[in-house]
Amino acid sequence: MTPEAQQLVATVEQLASLLREYPEPPWTDWFTHADALLRTGQLREGARHVRGAYGGMGSFNEAVLPGANETEYQRFDRLRKAAWEQAVEVEHQESRVGRLLRWIRAQ
Predict the structure, then answer these.
(1) Gap between the Cα atoms of 65 and 84, Å rounded
(2) Long-range contacts made by residues 3-6, C-beta under 8 angstroms, separation at least 24?
């Protein structure tokens, strides 16, 4: 697993844990599922699942943590931004690696 993938796994784990502490349906289930995908080695699918939470009205970009104090909300916001950036990078890496492996197997 690449360092970027390890970072994504750690970030999503922290995010899922925080969302369980301050439930925000449907995002708690969404990131718990992403965490499970990543932990079982389904990196591209997990990264894609994380990215699917972002963009548009009602997306994860607009999520709040009911009952969280300012410190916890700032932590949540940092994790939310990091998860997006890391998921983009991991999905890109997994795509390149996948193409390379397919080319090698075809030789």
Answers:
(1) 18
(2) 4/86, 4/89, 4/90, 4/93, 5/38, 5/43, 5/90, 5/93
CA distances to 59, 66, 79, 94, 106 from 4, in Å: 24, 30, 14, 11, 28
pTM exceeds cut of 0.70 = yes
6: tokens are 């390890």
Residue 71: both structure tokens together: 């410190």
| 58-102 pLDDT, tens digit each | 899 999 888 899 999 999 999 999 999 999 999 988 887 776 876
Question: What is the residue-averaged pLDDT of the chain?
Answer: 91
Tell me if 93 sits within 8 A of 5, measured CB to CB: yes
Residue 51 burial by Cβ neighbours in a 10 Å radius (0-12, 13-18, 19+): middle
